[in-house]
């Protein structure tokens, strides 16, 4: 790592030579700030149909007539409707903001679109961009030594990775609530007593090593790292994963596996985790998950209902714990779906004109940003690019979206590429 | 000519003919009505002699009309009730083996003559003239009494082929390329129209209408149809016979043919096999790789054909032949086709169900992957030797070019079969099949190595001659003087001489030599990426102390692991980044295998770079062509220009990708000029490769000298490093790569390019010492060089050696400096003038060294899923790569589960990838990197201590080497010592022995459980799950269950009592988690 060069660059920010790097930010306007200190990022993998959820239009017939597949209902935001399967969310929509005009160009490939929505960039061969989770963990830092700042409930994939920020800004993940995160918890056959015996032996070797080679700085540093690691897997953090501590009625309100994950997300935020990504990847409900081509559309309402109860319960639960203002909750997806139906009654992909929902974070809630046209196939108002979308979320978390991060070879990379946050969401 | 007169006709059989019958409708001349009264052959016969208008030896067409006038009830159900129209070269009775063309109808079969009963046929000789279905084309038309038939035969006498048409007034049928029954070419002027009757009184009257014979132009011959493959293909000559010992013997002869398929048919005419080799049994899990003249893997034709033959001798009796094939195959017993399988269908979506687990129809039978058809046929053998021939189609559009588990087995009915081959061929049960498959894989790996080295002898020789000239050239350069000896400072070789000169100036002290075991551990990791085993340690110690270090260097430099350890390095530096599923994240192809083969073949490094730059060979089989790829990248060659410039010239072009570099002397034009050289032609600057001007933000202050759409010519932008000199023109290059790419290759590696040798030397030095003479190693802009004299000297040695990395490595390892205790310093972060290299920098195991060493010391296999999301092999390789089952860490890749589906997860792979990524390995290598982000972190500790991999390594399962050690009859102290040796590479101190023994003593004596058998059955991941069924609930559930099971760790052995077993596991755990394990001594 060339610290010398980076210092040189920073110091010469005022000089003409370094001016190319300084000019990237629009320094005239102050960056708006929300109140969030943590983020719960609910990931609807597959492409959630905005027209069947948060941006409904006239009723379609599932065949030749485009439109919404369900009826619509009123919400706590006057004049704003959602579809009938979001009843509980409709009642708490005044704590939310609908971003209805998200836009990017990757409508073909799920992998590339997922990467794009998580990093607000296309893959590049000169920079490996970090995901929003890694940037948040990097910028806000962990609240304590014993809590990892970035947790994923889902599968490791490149879209979630820390890129040039390095593996120390990566995530701890679990794929099933039952098994918990790999590495963070002891294997099932090692109880506390056994762990202590093990650490006793380990301590004996470390002592012997120090005795034989007292000047070994590297060994001492390594021992210290180990100690910090074992502290992270201590009982207080491990208890966070044990949902049995929560009231039965609350657990029932949250609903199935996805809801339980949302409950765990609240507990993780309470314990100091900065960014929790919760994947809704329970395809067994309708076969395809949110990627409702063809017959996948048939039972889509079941997915929406699961999301509805989990999300609404989470919002109210956070509010009850006085955490809602300090927590940005996001419903995100890689793209939306068009108003028309395919030959077997499902929908394809639509990346220009889809929706994300934000809640909490100290935003001025009860609003809609952007709009699609009456048909639902085009953006009519205030298109939000991925950088704009990210800038909005970063601002909610008190992070300057134009701030420069540095790659290991000292190339400056702004947190977003000219992202413009939605001003009206901030006080 | 059409007139029919009585005089010209003869009759066969007793006929009453009436030549004055009315014309058949549509004719002008009267028909010839006949009525025969004999049993047996009946015919009207006429010889058409040669005239000026007609030459029966030349192509002609015969047309006639005909009507059945007889009693339908009299015609049928006997082989002897037949109709035939035919030509012969002499007068005959009925059609027989000397007829040429024949149209006819047989109403019934008889023993030895199976026919298309009751259907009109056209005779088409295959390999004999027998009157049987195989030689008869079924027109599908039955006899319609009273209908006026039109027949047409077009004859090519010289070729012995004809075509025929039948039309019964309503339907018609035509076939071409039919072969004369008698297989004799030339004129057959005697025409017969008749048939046969089973009884004398049968009324088979018919009317023969107008006959028209037309001469055809000479150059309108009838094309011979491809012979239908119902006959066994004859053995043919081959272009290349395998000489590798591992494929040169065995009872099964195998030939591979390419480009044989035309349309839907196999075309064996003039076929020559591409390659021929032998197998011990007729089963194929792996086929030979095809190599070019410079040892690059090539694709075969899509599809290609495999033909296998063996002599089968079994005692007389009934046997079941069993064929397993993914796609189309045919099995012949002698010349008889006995079994066919259907072509494989391609697939596209993910909506299939998880297929039912197969049920073996014989107890103990190994079940093939569900994508295979399993077809059997029962045959009677008479005890004499029979040739069995298998013809199989491999690959095709949208299919992978691999055999899967293609096999032929034979067994008595109801018994477990064995693979077809020698009488001692393996039985088809799980264990024998797995053994066979793994041995076959090894034999092929050896043969591939042998074949590609042989294939490239000429190219290798050319490089040797070139390197002789390079040596000449370097001898002519001004010599680089060694510095003066410095008294009091130790030296083993010239490297120390150069380093000591600077040490003396800085008045710094070298550290002491490390001890022998520490040296061995470090050397082993640096050469082959693995810890030394206890046996290796003991052999090392058994050698005389004065020479054991040099001998270890020699042994390890010759070890095959040398190749494995270098692959990891170059994967990072060259951004090798294959995507196994729908690669859309700036992915390259999988050129890892080519890297491995190049190091294991000992390619001189300049040749390796030259071949890399020229990017030839197969894209998916891992030749350097795979380096060309950068998915969804707007300018792949610009990306590659940067990779190559960083890797081999220390020129960082990445800052000049979208604009001129702000603080490097590179312009965007430099990047794109080199990119155009790699492309082979001028390149247009894509608009997406330009810094945008955005409303509301200040204009970017970086300079942009190019305009989007501007065209850049191929041009070498590094004249300061290399020019096209006479010496550069001697670099052997490919004759088939684009000229400018070959030119770029020359300029990269020519000895006139001093920067190239220095950059490579610097990288190697950095790898072993932890820092380079120049930092960063990939960016020499404005860099200060530590010890420039040593760098120059090493670069000269390297060049003179013919760019031999092992010569360079040996110089480094043999130096006193390398063999010293490590220094607690980061050379990479030290200023150039302070980089004294008075010892290697202290560092930790790399991610790959850690993972490979963990599994080595436990003696366990990874046990991974195959890195293949389409195990059925019916999706194109380009979108669904198969990277195989990883055996060393460099073989892993990202699982690419952006869709977050359990069914697309690979739990065992993921558990190992988690360790790799936490320790700095990259699962997505979009950018080239020289230095990893692998700073120590608490998460690393945790993952090793609590994670799946750590648990598997410490768990005393039946497949763990530690279990065998624990069971061995030896004292507790001996077990402790052996454990220390295995894990930490040294014997324990007295304190350590006492601590460990105390911990284990109480349960040691009674540790063994008697009478328990070692479990050998391996738990394998479910290989039915893949893209085909990734949307299925069951597929998701299966993988989630595998995840849960994996978290429990490997099943513990029952041969040890739990009390001892757990304590010994604790002991192992503690050793793995000490700093000493992770730190390189």
Characteristic key phrases:
heterodimer; A: 427 residues; Alkaline Phosphatase, subunit A; 14 strands; globular; B: 1081 residues; alpha+beta; Jelly Rolls; seven-stranded antiparallel sheet; 33 strands
Beta-strand portion of chain B reads: 15-25%
Structural class of chain B: alpha+beta
Q: Name the CATH superfamily assignment of chain A.
A: Alkaline Phosphatase, subunit A
SS class of chain A: alpha/beta
Mean pLDDT of chain B, rounded to whole units?
Answer: 91
Largest sheet of chain B: 7 strands, antiparallel
Low-confidence stretches of chain A: 11-26
* CATH level-1 class of chain A: Alpha Beta
Work out the helix count of chain A. Answer: 12
Largest interface: A-B, 96 and 105 residues
Number of domains of chain B: 4
Output the radius of gyration of chain B: 39 Å
User: How many beta-strand runs of chain A?
Assistant: 14
Give me the count of strands of chain B.
Answer: 33
Gap from first CA to last CA of chain B: 103 Å
The share of residues in extended strands of chain A comes to 5-15%
Amino- and carboxy-terminal Cα gap of chain A: 40 Å
**Estimated helix fraction of chain A:** 25-40%
């Amino acid at each position: 790592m060339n610290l010398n060069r980076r210092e040189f660059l920073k110091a010469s920010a005022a000089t003409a030579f370094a001016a190319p790097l300084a000019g990237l930010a629009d320094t005239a306007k102050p960056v708006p700030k929300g109140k969030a200190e943590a983020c719960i990022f609910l990931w609807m993998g597959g492409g959630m149909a905005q027209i069947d959820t948060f941006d409904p239009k006239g009723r379609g017939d599932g065949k030749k007539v485009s439109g919404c597949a369900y009826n619509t209902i009123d919400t706590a935001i006057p004049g704003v409707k959602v579809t009938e399967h979001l009843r509980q969310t409709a009642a708490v929509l005044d704590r939310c903001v609908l971003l209805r005009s998200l836009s990017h160009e990757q409508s073909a490939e799920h992998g590339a679109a997922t990467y794009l929505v998580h990093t607000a960039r296309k893959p590049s061969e000169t920079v490996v961009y970090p995901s929003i989770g890694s940037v948040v963990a990097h910028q806000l830092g962990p609240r304590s030594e014993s809590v990892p700042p970035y947790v994923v409930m889902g599968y490791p994939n490149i879209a979630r990775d820390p890129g040039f920020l390095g593996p120390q800004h990566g995530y701890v993940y679990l794929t099933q609530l039952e098994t918990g995160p790999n590495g963070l918890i002891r294997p099932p056959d090692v109880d506390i007593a056994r762990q202590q015996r093990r650490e006793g032996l380990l301590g004996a070797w470390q002592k012997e090593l120090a005795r034989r080679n007292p000047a070994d700085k590297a060994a001492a540093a390594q021992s210290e790292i180990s100690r910090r690691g074992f502290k992270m897997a201590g009982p207080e953090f491990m208890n966070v994963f044990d949902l049995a501590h929560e009231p039965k009625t609350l657990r029932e309100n949250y609903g199935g596996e996805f809801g339980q994950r949302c409950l765990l997300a609240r507990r993780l935020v309470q314990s100091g985790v900065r960014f929790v990504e919760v994947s809704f990847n329970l395809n067994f409900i309708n076969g395809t998950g949110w990627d409702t081509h063809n017959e996948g559309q048939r039972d889509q309402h079941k997915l929406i209902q699961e999301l509805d109860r989990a999300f609404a319960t989470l919002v109210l639960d956070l509010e009850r714990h006085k955490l809602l203002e300090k927590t940005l909750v996001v419903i995100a997806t890689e793209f939306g779906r068009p108003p028309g139906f395919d030959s077997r009654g499902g929908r394809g992909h639509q990346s220009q004109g889809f929706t994300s929902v934000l809640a909490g974070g100290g935003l001025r809630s009860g609003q809609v940003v952007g709009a699609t046209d009456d048909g639902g196939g085009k953006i009519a108002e205030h298109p939000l690019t991925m950088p704009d979308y990210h800038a909005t979320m970063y601002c909610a978390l008190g992070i300057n979206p134009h701030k420069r991060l540095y790659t290991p070879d000292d190339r400056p990379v702004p947190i977003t590429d000219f992202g413009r946050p939605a001003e009206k969401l901030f006080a | 000519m059409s007139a029919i007169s009585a005089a010209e006709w003869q009759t066969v059989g007793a006929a009453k003919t009436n030549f004055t019958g009315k014309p058949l409708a549509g004719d002008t001349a009267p028909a010839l009505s006949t009525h025969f009264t004999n049993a047996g052959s009946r015919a009207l016969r006429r010889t058409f002699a040669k005239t000026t208008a007609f030459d029966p030896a030349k192509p002609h067409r015969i047309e006639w009309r005909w009507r059945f006038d007889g009693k339908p009830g009299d015609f049928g159900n006997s082989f002897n009730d037949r109709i035939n129209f035919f030509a012969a070269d002499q007068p005959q009775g009925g059609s027989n083996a000397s007829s040429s063309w024949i149209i006819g109808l047989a109403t019934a079969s008889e023993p030895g003559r199976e026919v298309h009963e009751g259907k009109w046929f056209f005779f088409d000789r295959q390999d004999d003239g027998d009157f049987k279905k195989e030689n008869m084309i079924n027109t599908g038309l039955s006899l319609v009494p009273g209908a006026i038939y039109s027949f047409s035969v077009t004859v090519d006498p010289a070729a012995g082929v004809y075509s025929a048409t039948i039309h019964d007034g309503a339907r018609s049928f035509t076939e071409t390329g039919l072969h004369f029954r008698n297989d004799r070419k030339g004129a057959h002027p005697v025409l017969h129209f008749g048939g046969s009757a089973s009884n004398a009184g049968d009324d088979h009257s018919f009317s023969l209408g107008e006959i028209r014979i037309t001469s055809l132009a000479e150059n309108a011959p009838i094309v011979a149809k491809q012979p239908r493959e119902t006959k066994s293909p004859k053995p043919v000559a081959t272009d290349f016979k395998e000489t590798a010992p591992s494929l040169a013997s065995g009872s099964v002869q195998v030939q591979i043919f390419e480009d044989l398929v035309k349309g839907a048919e196999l075309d064996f005419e003039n076929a020559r096999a591409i390659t021929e080799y032998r197998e011990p049994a007729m089963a194929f899990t792996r086929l030979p790789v095809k190599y070019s003249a410079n040892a690059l893997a090539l694709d075969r034709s899509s599809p290609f054909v495999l033909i296998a033959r063996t002599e089968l001798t079994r005692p007389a009796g009934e046997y079941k032949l069993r064929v397993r094939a993914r796609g189309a195959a045919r099995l012949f017993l002698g010349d008889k086709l006995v079994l066919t399988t259907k072509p494989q269908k391609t697939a596209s979506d993910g909506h299939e169900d998880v297929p039912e687990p197969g049920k073996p129809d014989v107890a103990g039978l190994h079940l093939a992957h569900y994508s295979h058809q399993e077809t059997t046929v029962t045959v009677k053998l008479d005890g004499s030797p029979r040739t069995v021939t298998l013809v199989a189609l491999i690959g095709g559009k949208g299919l992978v070019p691999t055999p899967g588990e293609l096999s032929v087995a034979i067994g008595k009915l109801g018994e477990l079969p064995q693979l077809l081959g020698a009488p001692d061929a393996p039985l088809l049960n799980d264990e024998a099949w797995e053994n066979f498959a793994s041995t076959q894989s090894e034999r092929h790996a050896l043969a591939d190595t042998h074949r590609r080295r042989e294939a490239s002898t000429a190219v290798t020789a050319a490089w040797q001659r070139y390197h002789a000239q390079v040596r000449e050239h370097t001898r002519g350069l001004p010599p680089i003087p060694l510095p003066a000896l410095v008294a009091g400072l130790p030296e083993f070789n010239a490297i120390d001489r150069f380093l000591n000169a600077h040490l003396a100036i800085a008045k710094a002290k070298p550290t002491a030599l490390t001890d022998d075991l520490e040296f061995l551990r470090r050397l082993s990791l640096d050469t082959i990426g693995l810890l030394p085993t206890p046996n290796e340690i003991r052999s090392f110690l058994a050698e005389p102390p004065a020479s054991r270090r040099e001998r270890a260097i020699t042994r390890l430099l010759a070890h095959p692991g040398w190749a494995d350890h270098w692959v990891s390095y170059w994967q990072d530096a060259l951004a090798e980044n294959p995507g196994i599923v729908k690669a859309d994240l700036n992915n390259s192809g999988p050129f890892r295998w080519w890297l491995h083969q190049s190091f294991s073949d000992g390619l001189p490094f300049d040749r390796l770079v030259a071949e890399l730059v020229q990017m030839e060979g197969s894209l998916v089989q891992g030749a350097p062509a795979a380096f060309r790829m950068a998915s969804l990248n707007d300018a792949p060659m610009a990306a590659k220009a940067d990779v190559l410039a960083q890797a081999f010239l220390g020129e960082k072009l990445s800052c000049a990708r979208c604009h001129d570099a702000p603080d490097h002397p590179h312009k965007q034009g430099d990047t794109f000029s080199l990119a155009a050289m790699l492309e082979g032609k001028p390149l247009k600057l894509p608009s997406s490769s330009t810094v945008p001007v955005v409303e509301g933000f200040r204009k970017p202050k970086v300079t942009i000298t190019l305009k989007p759409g501007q065209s850049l010519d191929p041009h070498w932008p590094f004249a300061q490093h290399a020019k096209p000199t006479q010496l550069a023109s001697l670099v052997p290059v490919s004759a088939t790569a684009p000229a400018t790419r070959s030119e770029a290759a020359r300029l990269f590696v020519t000895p006139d390019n001093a920067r190239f040798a220095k950059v490579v030397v610097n990288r190697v030095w950095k790898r072993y010492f932890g820092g380079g003479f120049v930092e960063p190693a990939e960016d020499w802009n404005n860099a200060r060089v530590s010890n420039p004299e040593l760098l120059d000297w090493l670069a000269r040695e390297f060049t003179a050696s013919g760019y031999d990395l092992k010569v360079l490595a040996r110089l480094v390892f043999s130096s006193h400096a390398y063999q010293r205790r490590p220094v607690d310093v980061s050379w990479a972060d030290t200023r150039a003038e302070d980089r004294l290299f008075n010892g290697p920098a202290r560092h930790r195991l790399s991610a790959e060294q850690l993972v490979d060493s963990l599994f080595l010391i436990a003696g366990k296999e990874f046990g991974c899923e195959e890195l293949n999301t389409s195990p059925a092999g019916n999706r194109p390789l380009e979108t669904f790569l198969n990277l195989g089952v990883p055996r060393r860490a460099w073989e892993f890749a990202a699982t690419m589960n952006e869709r977050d589906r359990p069914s697309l997860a690979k739990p065992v792979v993921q558990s190992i990838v988690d360790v790799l990524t936490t320790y700095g390995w990259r699962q997505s290598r979009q950018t080239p990197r020289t230095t990893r982000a692998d700073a120590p972190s608490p998460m690393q500790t945790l993952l090793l201590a609590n994670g799946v991999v750590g648990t598997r390594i410490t768990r005393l399962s039946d497949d763990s080497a530690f279990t065998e050690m624990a069971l061995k009859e030896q004292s507790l102290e001996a077990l402790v010592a052996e454990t220390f040796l295995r894990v930490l590479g040294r014997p324990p101190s007295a304190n350590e022995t006492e601590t460990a023994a105390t911990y284990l003593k109480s349960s040691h004596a009674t540790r063994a459980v008697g009478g328990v058998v070692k479990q050998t059955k391996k738990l394998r991941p479910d290989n039915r799950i893949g893209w085909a069924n990734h949307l299925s609930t069951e597929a998701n559930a299966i993988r989630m269950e595998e995840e849960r099971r994996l978290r429990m760790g490997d099943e513990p052995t029952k041969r040890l009592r739990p009390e001892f077993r757990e304590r010994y596991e604790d002991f192992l755990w503690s050793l793995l988690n000490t700093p000493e394990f992770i730190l390189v001594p």
